[in-house]
């Protein structure tokens, strides 16, 4: 299972979605999301504007940087370091996209 997040916009003269950003991550990172309090923002903000999750993502990134060893230990997988690194990269990419497209709508699949 995985989490996939899209940022979309709608054209001025059409109702077609314009894809601005798309990223996914496997659910192995869920224990990290739980510990740093970002899981709800990632899984429950579909239909909201990207600007609404900028602050939670920034907070989560600060926690990830200051609690690296603790968060790596949470993941019960032989690839702990890669899961942590992937989660960090996922949040960084999402933050950049949310800042670039703050009015975009969030769509998530999980």
Structural overview:
Strand 1 and strand 2 form a beta hairpin. The chain is built from five helices and three strands. It has one domain. Helices cover 48% and strands 22% of the residues. The protein has a three-stranded antiparallel β-sheet, with helices on one face. The protein is an alpha+beta fold.
pLDDT below 50 for ≥5 consecutive residues: which ranges?
A: none
Number of helices: 5
- What letter string, H or E per element, gives the SSE order? EEHHHHHE
Q: Count structural domains.
A: 1
Compute the number of strand runs. 3
Largest sheet data: 3 strands, antiparallel
Shape: elongated
Question: Fraction of residues in helices?
Answer: 40-55%
- Across the major sheet, the strand order is 2-1-3
Distance between the termini: 7 Å
- Summarize model confidence as the mean pLDDT: 91
Which structural class is indicated by helix and strand composition? alpha+beta
What would you report as the Rg, rounded to the nearest angstrom?
A: 14 Å
Strand residue content: 15-25%
